[in-house]
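Dear support,

I submitted the protein below through the web form. The confirmation email said the job was done, but the results page showed an empty box. After a refresh the structure appeared. I'm attaching both so you can tell me whether what I see now is the final result or a partial one.
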Amino acid sequence: MSLLMINITKSETKFNDLEEKMWKKKMQEGIEELKEQLRKIDNELLKSKNNNELKVKDFQKTTIKCKFGDLEIYRRRYTLKKNGETKTVYLLDIYLELGYCGQYSQSIVEMILKEATEKSYRKTAETIRENTNVSITHTAARKILINFSENHIEEIEKEKLKLYEKGYIEGEKELRIIYEESDGIYISKQSKKRNKKARKGKKLKSEIKIGIVHEGFEKRYREDFRIKNKQMVATTKDAKYFKRLVDMTIGTTYKESSIERIIINADGAGWCKDIAESPKERYQLDMFHIQKKITEVIQDKEYKELMSRIVKTDKPEYIFNIMYNYKVELEHDKKAEELEKVKGLEEYLRNNKKGLLRYQYDLGLTQEEIEKQEETEYRNLGTEESQMYCGCRKRMKKNRTSWSDKGAEAMVKVISYIKSNLLEDLITGKMKKAIEKELDERIPEPKKIRKKKIGKIKYVTKNSILESLTGFRRLKLKNLLRDKSFNEMHIIGN
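What the results page shows now:
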């Protein structure tokens, strides 16, 4: 026993060393096994293909960084001839839905994106190195996120916008009421030396516009509700573009003809209430912000309780009468500082007067029904604000983080698609295929028109007057001569 202990001590073997060796060994075994499985599947696809339009061209080598490490594979490349067009396809990629961005596998990209939206790029790189056999830098993690946003999210977003606004795609789900909750978050921008504000020491700010489109609330437990079918929309661009994204999200999810009312809940910012454009859209001032401002401004307990209660009734405008009385008392007591705050609160509420009435009253609910929140799905909006914005606020405002325009837009896009559970559909190409399928079903393939060949133009003169001309002058004169209204030089032949 003692001899054994001496030998172990002399070997200086540690558990961590053994664990690391075994882990590397299993990673290598995983690479080889994965490579073999992919080879077998590729061979089976070759045997089972029953399509004369597909022809094997060659084998192509590619390297994919996956969880096991660098995976080098050779997969068959086919040529596909269809409708007079020839393109290159990989049956292995199609069959396995092999999604990867650049040299990284889908699983690695997903891991990087999810980690990067929760923590810094540097910590993201550390997490990847610790949990996989892939080593990346923090700059590589940032580049992957930005490239994914630009080449996947923004590309398909641009395409969907174009198709939606032309009326080529639309949603199928029918629903009477849609909810939209909007708010903004200010983040610090990276300063540039040439920027005048930066030189003067002023902090540069950029606003993230965030919206949540959902179908209201559904019971999860006895007295617990959750938002139904939530979709997040976010951008650092202007309000007009944000509105287009929201409309597209609604229009490509739901059948617009079935929608009777779109309830827009916001905090009173100009761009938030201005996005309510159509007769179907009804703007409502967020109750959470109303109550917060009343609590912060009104010092008298009785007036505070009275104002907080009156804005929840079907006569919320009565708050201005109460506020008038309170201002008289403050003026009499010479409380100038509080009086100015009350005037500011009054201005805020008057600017949003049309949004004071709760949407539930528009839907025909009574005050008693609204107060019994546990018995109805028409709950007060804004209750899920933490869910809506915590992802962006936590990642983009902590630790004095500053952002470039490109980096900020990429980050909010990735966060919004993760929160909407659409990340996998983007990486695998399912979203793009769904759009292509809908276009094929809705828009018939245009018939090819056989163009009549136009031969050499002959004129009354023995020799063509075009023979002495070239380029732009020749083309311009040819067009003029074809126009009979131009002059009396008529085309004899064609």
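Response: this is the final, complete result; the empty box was a page-load delay. The chain has three domains: 25-154, 155-442, 451-494.
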